Amino acid sequence: MPNAAALRLSSTKNVSKDCVIYRLQCDITDNTIFRFKATVPKCSVDDVCRRIHPCSTLRPVWDSQLQSIEVIDELSANVLVIRHVIKSRLLGIISERDTIDLCKFSTETDGSKRAVMCSIVHPACPRVPSIVRAHTHPSMFGIKATDDDGVEVEAILHAEMHLNSVPTKVLETLMPRGIAKFHDDLKKSFQKAQPLKGDRALPGWLFARSSERA
């Protein structure tokens, strides 16, 4: 991730009372980096983990922007290779995108969760002609409890989506809208009955009970 001295705040957008998106400009790569902080009320860290972790079955159910997510390779107990496929946007003007990311999931001493990710090349994932292969620069996603029985999610997103043909004004709103939609979908998922599997292990984040591991 670029040195903090190379980053400058470009804009701040309060999407709602519980979601803020920061746009940062990197003077070294000339790329835009997004940071967002948001809260999800009346839920636990484990609840959010089960909705987001790629080894859970819930993410494709509630994330309206996600076409598919799959584990390509397990390199260790908490390091996975993940393929994300994002749906097309703007009535198909922007085609589907996919990323092949090396992801490390960890649990901190205070119970908070973190995932760091970066794109790699993997022999099991050749390019698909109809899908544009995007590139994730070093990024992170964090989940931690708040003091009012909720959860804070925070992410630093730095990616090359290969959208050179898309007008600048569209680009300026595309990522923030996508981030806001992700947060909105996540909150709404708690308003619906979901078949949560509490004992299912999620590498690096949640571990099966001893009876399940036997």
UniProtKB/TrEMBL annotation:
Molecular function terms from GO: lipid binding
Domain of life, source organism: Eukaryota
Keyword Repeat tagged: no
Pfam family, one: START
Swiss-Prot/TrEMBL keywords: Lipid transport, Lipid-binding, Transport
START domain segment(s): 59-195
Xref: SUPFAM superfamilies: Bet v1-like
CDD domains assigned to the protein according to its UniProt record, in alphabetical order: START (cd00177)
GO BP term, example: lipid transport
Role noted for this protein: May be involved in the intracellular transport of sterols or other lipids. May bind cholesterol or other sterols.
Record protein name field: START domain-containing protein
